[in-house]
Task: inverse folding
């Protein structure tokens, strides 16, 4: 599979899961602690570049533990898990030498694109938000949204 094929398939899979991510964001917005200063949406690919990753909302403000605990049931927007020997959802998985591109870079790039597509539809949460790839993965710069839901970086 080429990098382009992988990215297309991954975006298709993410789009299929957009309704559940939007539902989690709606619940998160309703339960957002008042002391929250900013949302940080982290794309966390696995270290082995096999294809595992998750997309998690992190709240920023005083007492991070308390803030994030308040919205814990709604923080995960997407997650790849191995359940009973099967990938859920069924994303392509790779061994370290099977591809000639960085799987983690591709995951982050496609995930940022996916988040941007539904973030504007969602309308934001009234606070600044930053989307980032963990460990510096991805060719895209971090996406930053103002409290008014306009992208400014």
Result:
């Amino acid at each position: 599979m080429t990098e382009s094929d992988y990215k297309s398939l991954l975006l298709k899979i993410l789009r299929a899961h957009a309704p559940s991510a939007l539902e989690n964001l709606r619940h998160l917005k309703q339960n957002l602690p008042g002391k929250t200063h900013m949302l940080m949406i982290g794309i966390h690919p696995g270290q082995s570049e096999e294809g595992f990753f998750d997309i998690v909302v992190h709240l920023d403000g005083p007492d991070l533990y308390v803030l994030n605990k308040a919205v814990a049931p709604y923080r995960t927007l997407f997650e790849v898990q191995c359940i009973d020997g099967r990938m859920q959802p069924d994303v392509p998985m790779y061994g370290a030498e099977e591809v000639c591109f960085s799987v983690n870079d591709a995951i982050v790039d496609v995930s940022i694109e996916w988040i941007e597509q539904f973030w504007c539809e969602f309308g934001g949460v009234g606070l600044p938000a930053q989307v980032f790839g963990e460990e510096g993965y991805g060719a895209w710069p971090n996406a930053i949204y103002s409290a008014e839901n306009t992208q400014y970086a």
